[in-house]
Specification:
Layout lengths: L3 E4 L2 E3 L7 E5 L16 H13 L4 E4 L12 H8 L2 E3 L1 E3 L9 H6 L3 H10 L11 E5 L7 H17 L3 E4 L6 H11 L7 E4 L7 H9 L3 E4 L7 H4 L2 H13 L3 E3 L19 H14 L1 H8 L1 H7 E2 L3
Parallel strand pairs: 3-4, 4-5, 6-7, 7-8, 8-9, 9-10, 10-11
Antiparallel strand pairs: 1-2, 1-12
Helix pairs in contact: 1-2, 4-5, 7-9, 9-10, 10-11
Bound molecules: zinc ion.
Length: 303
Amino acid sequence: MVSAVRTVLGDLPPAELGVTDSHDHLFFRSPRLPGQELDDAPAARAELAAFRAAGGSAVVQWTPYGLGRRAADLPPLSRATGVHVVCATGLHQDVHYAEDTPAALRGRLADVFVAELTEGIGDTGVRAGLVKVAGGFHGLDAHARWTMTAAAEAHHATGAPVAVHLEMGTAALDVLDLLCGELEVPPHRVILGHLNRFPDSVLHRQAAESGCYLAFDGPSRTHHATDWRMPDAVRALAEGGFGDRLLLGGDTVVAAARSVDGGPGMPYLLRRVRPRLAAELGADLVEQVLTENPGRAFAVDWR
Ligand SMILES: [Zn+2]
């Protein structure tokens, strides 16, 4: 069995992934963000091209089931721009769905995740490369427990990594207790996102000690109050010996945040975050965080 990152164009040796935006969105549509949908293929193509022009090689889209992933559009976009794209299955928080969406998945959620990882999303033939789920604000509700249980089942069936949206960066230890404790997902198959939104260095260290990956993302207008603390948080983790567990992403979730619409978008990761973090960690470690770490975090011995 050979480890591979499951991209929208097929399985890729992790060494070929290159400079990776480990958490972002080309497409995302939620009733919570009306009028701000990422739902425009030409804009997505321009954003990917801008990322490529800035030196980017791969983008991991964390948009889960039912939020306008547009899986069929991803292979042509990847081909046209030369950027590797990995897409997700999984389920977001309840508030992102109309009532009937989760209801229709009762009793078969893990099967849906497994099918999207191994056969493809809908009838597109495009396979997901990770499972994305979400925690709540300092706790986990029944919906979060249900989706994480299904994600763990899908992990055990396929080997897929489980990427977690932490609400405002909180409930990291609750997520780890559930996923890695109760549900026995190996910590190195779990990626925690948004920890920068709750910059408690002790908590970050406790999460890192579990052996999971920590994905730092942004900037975003909503999280401007804490975004500036990200370089300090990343440096503290690197100094603690967790440099090999760090990932970075842009997490563009609204149209106004795309670089092609005047926002930071995907290129910001390489244009501004990379040199800023190089000042904290040194250029070598930043390159490792952008290339080797994602190769390890997303490569799977697919079952
Ligand atoms: Zn995201």
